[in-house]
Write a structure and sequence with these properties.
By secondary structure, the protein is α/β, with parallel strands linked by helices. It has helices at residues 7-14, 62-69, 73-85, 102-109, 121-135, 164-173, 216-220, 275-290, 295-311; strands spanning 21-24, 46-48, 57-60, 90-93, 114-116, 139-141, 144-149, 152-158, 177-182, 185-190, 193-197, 205-208, 212-215, 228-239, 253-257, 260-269.
Length: 312
């Protein structure tokens, strides 16, 4: 699922903050940006003027303007042709500079809008790259309840009717925070990071069977809601009779989401089991394993040591 982003999107979202105004090519503001993957070089989104390694947004500061303006006419024509004919979707001239006059002709020829801004070129690149990398990142909506549990982004999954929402509600009463119920949206914002957030329509709400839709913010306060979090773990609710037989080892699998493998821990469901306590324990144990402490391995090693001492 990819949102279509255009220069008009930049103008609407960042226009005031970056003091953007359209200098030329206003009729081309709806040209779409190309989808961005983190297998690509991040500089392909926004960068300083470069006619060889082009970016989708080319930023022209004082150094770049002087370079273009001092080129012989024939060479300037070649350089600007290479830049505009590549993947350039928009050009931003920073620091309240007057754009080189030749840019207007190229804007029309290649149907490319040109912005002017009083913002420094460094800040323009930083803010535009952040905006575009998030807007054009790979996205996926998953079914489940996304929560912050002990500072970790955890997705609760499982078949309908197993009690995901009830578990989420109990975790909230224990001080953990809701991010999104039912349809959290995840996006890959860096090569090794997926972040999740709630669609605006569902923000603050949790549906619990028998109680209907609850407004968690109104019931438990602002501290019960978290707007976004990196996805680090999946707790998968499963019927108890389908739980793995191994009672010593900590069962852990992975699920590939947007090209990254996210750890999955099964959470067997049965009457009388305190799932909130079990979920907290699973998260704490996962954090310990990440820091290099594996309780199962330690216990097995202790057994082997005891057996060896008995034999000796």
């Amino acid at each position: 699922m990819h949102e279509q982003i255009t220069p008009a999107s930049i103008l609407e979202t960042l226009g005031e903050k970056l003091t953007l105004s359209v200098w030329a090519g206003a009729e081309y503001l709806n040209n779409p940006f190309s989808h961005h993957s983190f297998s690509d070089d991040s500089a392909s989104l926004v960068g300083y003027f470069n006619s060889i390694h082009t970016s989708q947004v080319q930023v022209i500061g004082s150094v770049e303007k002087n370079y273009i303006s001092n080129l012989p006419e024939a060479e300037q024509e070649q350089v600007l042709t290479r830049m505009f004919a590549a993947s350039t979707v928009a050009v931003c001239v920073s620091d309240s500079l007057q754009p080189p006059a030749s840019l207007e002709r190229f804007a029309k020829r290649y149907q490319t809008p040109i912005f002017c801004s009083s913002t420094s070129s460094t800040e323009l690149i930083t803010r535009l790259r952040y905006f575009l990398s998030h807007s054009l990142a790979d996205k996926e909506i998953l079914h489940g309840v996304f929560m912050e549990i002990i500072s970790l982004g955890v997705l609760l999954t499982g078949e309908s009717g197993l009690g995901k929402s009830e578990l989420a509600l109990e975790l909230i009463t224990r001080g953990h925070r809701l991010i999104a119920d039912d349809a959290p949206e995840f996006m890959r914002v860096s090569p090794d990071t997926i972040t999740g957030k709630c669609p605006p329509m569902l923000l603050d709400f949790l549906e619990v069977r028998g109680l209907g839709v609850l407004n968690i913010r109104e019931m438990y306060g602002d501290s019960s809601i978290k707007l976004s979090k990196y996805l680090r773990l999946i707790l998968h609710l499963t019927p108890f009779n389908q739980a793995p037989e191994d009672r010593l080892s900590s069962i852990q699998d992975t699920k590939n989401i947007l090209g990254l493998d996210i750890p999955v821990i099964p959470l067997p469901v049965a009457p009388g089991r305190n799932l909130a306590v079990l979920a907290e324990a699973a998260v704490r144990n996962h954090l310990l394993r990440r820091s290099g402490h594996d309780a199962s391995a330690d216990f097995i090693q202790r057994q082997h040591k005891a057996i060896a001492e008995d034999r000796g």
